[in-house]
Each structure stands twice: as C-alpha cells, then as structure tokens.
Amino acid sequence: MAVELPNLSEEQKNRLAQRLSMMSHDRADVGQGLPRTTRALVLGIGGDAGAARLEALVDALVYERVIVPIDVEPDPRVTGVHAGESGHNPIDFVRAQTPAGEALAIYSSAEVLSAHRPGARPMALDFRTIGLTALVETGGRVVVNPGTDAVLLPRPAVASLAQGDAWLPAWRDEDLRDLLLAESSAACPAIADVAIVYAGDGLTRVLVSVDRARFAQGEGASSMTAALSAALNAVGANPRLIASADRVEIAPVLR
User: Fold this and answer.
1) How do residues 207-233 score in pLDDT, each as one tens digit?
2) Are 99 and 201 in contact (CB under 8 A)?
3) How far apart are CA 180 and CA 157, in angstroms?
4) Please, what's the b/e burial string for 180-201 (b: 16 or more CB within 10 A of its CB; e: otherwise)?
5) Count of CB atoms within 10 A of residue 21's CB?
6) Which of 57, 99, 194, 221 lies at a 20 to 30 A Cα distance from 228?
7) What are the structural domains, with CATH classification, of the chain?
C-alpha cells in the first residue's frame, strides 16, 4: 500500500531540519568528555607546573561545554515557589575550596561528576555563562574536576573566556617581561634579568635574577638592599602584571 507523503513548504522543511539537527545533537551529547577538553586534561602537570595543560584547557573551553552539578528543583506544589520567581539565577552553582580561594566547580563529563558527587544531577552549560557568574561570585575563579585531578582556572583566563577575548598568560607575555625588567633594573642596577613562570594552582611566579657581584659592589649593603626591595615592590605593584595574573609571587634569585 502506498503511503502519501505530506507536501511541506520550504519553511516547514527548514524547521524540520533544525529540529532533527537538535535531536541528533541531544542524542550524541550524553555528558561525555569532549575531545578538546579531554586532550587538554591528559597533558597532566609535567615540568611546567601544568601551564601547557591550563593553556590547552582554556582554549578548549572556547569551543566546548562543561558539566555542572545542580540541585533538583523542589516540587512547587509543596514549596509554592516556581523556578525564577525569586528573581535569582535558578542555577545554584557548587563551590569548592582551592589554594587561591573559593571557586565555582565544573566537570569535564557527567562520569567525573558522578565519581566526585554521587547522585548529583548533571547539566551541560557553555563556559561563558559560568565565567560571568564566577566574576561576580568567586572573584573570577573556576575549578575543573575538583576532587580528582583538579585544574584551577585563574581570574584572567576566566574573564577572557567570559568576555569572548583571547587569553594571553603572563608567562607568554614578552612585552610584560621586558617592562618588568626595565623598571626593576632602573631601580636596582644589580637586577640582571626577569622571568615569568607558572607555578601551579593559579600562581604566577616572577623570578628576579640578581647579579651577586654587582650587588656586592654597590655603595653599601644597606643601600643596595633597599634598592632591591624597592624594585621588587615595584614589580609586584605593576598594573599590567596585576591585570594578567591572579596570584603573584616575586622571587629574587642570586646568580
């Protein structure tokens, strides 16, 4: 028996295609770890204190969603309150303590979430929504996969993702390094070089190399020490460094 197919208009065909596309996407996304995020996380910490992993993860979050745990909404027939009526964001983000302070907790997959918080309900979200919330509620800090191999996303990275900007880590910013070297060596001639490295857990370390011989040849130990102290304070107070790093440690190194 022949079945007569409905005659659809072009508009109806387009709407049907959009719905089928959405259905296909929904079926495929069951909370699994997505490829860019997964590749970033398997990089591990390594000898760079996790800088490469952090950079790759931030790049992945430009394109891929993450999983957040949410509380199941209480039955409005019992509470008398429907979601959104209170005027607050209906998503109650989970927070986790990190060495840098409180951070919003997100997960790379529903499986990782379930292992850390059994029974939690997973919800997929794009990172921009999470980043905007973190800037208001946790000083811009977000932690990925707390409880397992956690990766702390520092404020500058979160702010860039939330605003749709490219993130330039402080340790990749050659202009910043040159600026810090110029300012610090002008204050203390014994300073020979400056290096910026990632030290893990959202900490940026500025290594200030001090020439031991020039330091000893100064007009006096006390005056040279004072000049070095002033230079280190100036490095820590540099506005560009403050803007590009969440937590900063200044470490003088004699050579």
Assistant:
1) 999 998 887 765 566 788 899 999 999
2) yes
3) 21
4) bbeebbebbbbbbebebbbbbb
5) 10
6) 99
7) 31-72+91-163 (3.40.1350.90), 170-254 (3.30.70.2210)
